[in-house]
Design goal:
Structural class: alpha/beta
Radius of gyration: 19 Å
Number of strands: 9
Number of helices: 10
Length: 316
């Protein structure tokens, strides 16, 4: 099979690093920040306790200290990246909590402060599809005209039964409404999906990707479920254990999903980083480089690439 079009190395999928290097001509790093945002699925607005897999840090386990100002958090993380990439540019990544769930003046202060920091060329804002009121959409539209903006939407699964079981707090229809509200305004969206949620079969996980692929998103993140101490899901697991994905099973599944995605969709992540201090399983996931190498090997063994089985169809 010919080399994959969106690659200048041995990768057979459209990596985030390749996209950024093509756009900026150099290394660009994402700086995770924690602005202390809450979540409507924790404060009782649409639910309490949050998603069952979500840690106490609200998915910001590797972000900054929310008690520190944004510039101080940024400087601390920048110093870490500078050891490896001293000339890098940066995308400020508001990762923890629901990063559009605050009054508009608060959002504006946090985001504009980050944009003004030296070397910052863009923003990534992680949020929920049900937290995009019209004033926030108007502001995001303005941001997208001024900087390299990506809004990251946590979907996790297209299956509403699973969403209820993990206390997601909204259904697939709500996700589609939020996705459409963003893309109709020309705002690039990165969709998050989690493989290995309790009760889901491999075919269900592939179906999630098929339906997301039909939307032709700008980017996706494919995650492995990390079972973390202190979460509601960990308590459920102790009471009634459910199978966790094995490495070989996960690698095959990821390659299936890559084949189903459009070749033009940027792959921001293929496996996640669970906090080793809190990780119950799968323990093999801490060897991230080994997992990524196994994915490369399996794609090569199949002689396949991202998009090999993508079937264009209606977007919604």
């Amino acid at each position: 099979m010919a080399a994959f079009f969106y690659s200048n190395d041995n990768k057979r999928y459209y990596t985030w690093n390749y996209y950024l290097r093509q756009k900026y001509g150099q290394k660009v790093c994402k700086i995770p920040l924690n602005a202390g945002f809450s979540c409507p699925n924790r404060d009782g607005t649409c639910g309490s306790g949050g998603c069952t897999f979500c840690s106490g840090q609200q998915s910001g386990d590797f972000g900054g200290d929310p008690s520190l100002p944004i510039p101080e958090q940024f400087a601390q993380m920048q110093a870490v990246f500078a050891k490896k990439w001293p000339e890098a540019l940066f995308i400020a990544y508001f990762q923890a909590g629901t990063s559009t769930y605050a009054p508009l003046p608060v959002l504006r202060e946090k985001f504009e402060t980050a944009l003004a920091l030296p070397g910052v060329v863009g923003l990534s804002i992680a949020t929920r599809a049900d937290c995009l009121p019209p004033p926030v959409l108007d502001y995001l539209t303005n941001l997208a005209r001024r900087t390299d903006l990506t809004v990251e939407l946590g979907l996790q699964t297209v299956h509403d039964q699973t969403a209820r079981q993990i206390n997601r707090g909204h259904n697939y229809a709500a996700f589609l409404a939020g996705y459409r509200a963003l893309t109709d305004r020309g705002i690039p969206v990165c969709v998050h999906l989690i493989n290995g949620l309790p009760g889901e079969t491999g075919e269900m996980m592939r179906q999630s990707v098929r339906q997301v692929a039909a939307l032709r998103p700008f980017a996706v993140k494919l995650h492995l479920l990390h079972l973390l101490q202190g979460t509601a899901l960990a308590a459920q697991y102790r009471a009634a254990p459910f199978p966790l994905l094995e490495k070989e099973e996960y690698v095959r599944l990821i390659c299936d999903q890559l084949e189903l995605l459009p070749p033009q969709t940027v792959i921001q992540r293929l496996t996640g980083d669970g906090d080793r201090r809190a990780l119950i399983g799968p323990l093999w996931s801490v060897r991230k480089r080994e997992v990524l190498n196994a994915i490369d090997w399996e794609l090569s063994r199949r002689d396949t690439v991202q998009g090999a089985r993508f079937s264009p169809g209606p977007s919604f």
